[in-house]
Amino acid sequence: MLKISELSAHYGSVQALHHVNVQVNEGEIVTLIGANGAGKSTLMNTIFGYPRASGGSIAFEGRDITKRPSHEIAKFDIAIVPEGRRIFQRMTVMENLLMGDTSRDRRTSQDLERMVGMFPILGNRASQRAGTLSGGEQQMLAIARALMSHPRLLLLDEPSLGLAPIYIKKIFSVIRELNTQYGMTVLLVEQNAHHALRVAHRGYVLQHGHIALEGDGRSLLADPAVRAAYLEGDTTQLDAA
Asked: What CDD domains does the database record attribute to this sequence (predicted)?
């Protein structure tokens, strides 16, 4: 479904991604883990066109989207939940959800009912300003807003960042449910390697803008180098292990 080939990206003169290759097959959850500054969010943002790829290609269902503007990429049934959520804080919860409904030929009321069923707290807070929600509730809102567009590929950038354990558990439960019950394909960027690799079919480890390791979720979870670097608080680099 998504094929990233030899992708490079820069911020000015600083190269953030170096010839990265990532593939996401339909129906998979694929996770990308790595330390702060490894290039995870850059990769996610480059898929949507900011920053622009300086080399390589990005294809969605065989169609090259490397140089397409962001608003066109969104029309290809791809939705992103960015790091930091970026909800419309002055709008109500309901208004945020409606902002995610990008198609006029769908039944919005049914979509809203489905979102409230998945995230009951949003129904209880429908008329509340989004900026007054807790961090975990805002993350649920950000995911629900993205789902309102009926994406076939969902990009999640650090969905558990800064959340309390109870919300982290809920978020990963929802990711699994979206995949198993609705067949949604998910590309997940996460610092919480333990939760991410447990839910993922496959994973990639990104270091300094390079792919250092790749494999199925269970294999990476059991890999001594991954455990030392990301699961046991050790800062040892994989390329030096």
From this structure: ABC_TM1139_LivF_branched
